[in-house]
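HUMAN: Mind sharing a backbone?

ASSISTANT:
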Amino acid sequence: MKKLKRSERLVDMTQFLLAKPHTLIPLTTFADRYGAAKSSISEDLAIIKEVFEEEGLGELQTLAGAAGGVRYIPKLSQERALDFVQELCGKLQQSDRILPGGYLYMSDLLGQPSLMNEAGKIIATAFAHRDIDVVMTVETKGIPLAYATAAQLNLPVVLVRRDHQVTEGSAVSINYVSGSHKSIHTMSLSRRALREQSRVLIVDDFMKAGGTIQGMVDLLAEFNAEVAGVGVLVESGAIESQERLLQDYISLACLNDVDARSKMITVRPGNYFEQ
């Protein structure tokens, strides 16, 4: 790479760090990349670290020693997270989202990369310092959020199928009970998709009583895997605490009420802001 001015180097270094979250990068990588002394690289990193912290963009961890380096941990400040979630709540409260049966249309929001990236960053912030191997979700609507979260944590995504696919090879299948409708469904996971004793972050777009997520928890037990955390975009506030199958989770928004007659939808920030 050609010799860069310091201002150019700072921009390129910042982009390099943003593209490799949760990755330990030796200082020699930057020194070789820019043909600069490690002392100059350390000064540059100090500037980037200060900006990241002031702007609420995350942490820059420096590890000393021969095996040391720098690691970027994406994080969103509580203030920026709340601004985003309040905007999300506003979008969810649009009256034309009400579907027959009192359901809420969310697919357009789940299809917006910028929105999902921000939501994924908030969930990644909540679990930034937990030991996690993979992010898991069940097809299909939770996939965009799972990938957005995994990108911020620099982790692979494991996809649970509702119906076993022959292209997945041998799989483990279980039956689970829907927490809201009390009906029995099936989900499966390829044996090749997840190593035993993995630590898994479960992510989903919506949780009512928690039956689907509890099904994933039970499925993980078949792999001797451990649940490292659960994050959902929206939870239903219409479910009583004692009826919920899951208690340990974080939500970004809470859907309190959908009144089809008055076309009124009530959504508030989720329990992420109560931690």
